[in-house]
Amino acid sequence: MQIQFNTDESVDGREALGRHAEEVVQRVLGRFSDEVTRVEIHLSDVNGQKVGENDKRCLMEARVAGRQPVAVTDQANTLHQAIDGAAQKLKRSLDSTLGKLGEHKRTPPIPSSDDES
Fold it and tell me: Residue 29: helix, strand or coil by DSSP?
């Protein structure tokens, strides 16, 4: 699973945040590494240099092999919190999406009435 990290110009501490984001993604989403080819992380400060509540935003997008991308966002008071929140949301979304695919694969086809003769 490849991890791509991006920030806007208003985000400070890019290298430390990048390490934190990679650690969180590996810890929270590591079990999906067979299905997820890439996770893109985009960090931004919603209102720039102004101080505000829940103004740090993290968008995470998972590229699932053979499927449409799954994207989530989280806003929090700090970028670390936004990263953690987005990772948890993405985990739940992937659980749901990939869980449904797994159920579909495991469920045997229902025999038609023609098969019963």
Answer: helix
Distance, CA of 28 to chain centre: 9
48: left (phi over 0), alpha (psi -120 to 50) or beta: left
Predicted TM-score (pTM) of the model is: 0.80
Superfamily of domain 2-101: Ribosome hibernation promotion factor-like (3.30.160.100)
Closest to 101 in 3D by CA, of 68, 54, 61, 55: 68
Q: In a structure prediction context, what are the per-residue pLDDT tens digits for the chain, which is 117 residues long?
A: 999 999 988 787 788 999 999 999 999 999 999 999 999 999 998 876 666 677 899 999 999 988 899 999 999 999 999 999 999 999 999 999 887 666 434 344 455 555 554
Across the chain, where does the E strand assignment appear?
A: 2-7, 36-45, 56-64, 70-76
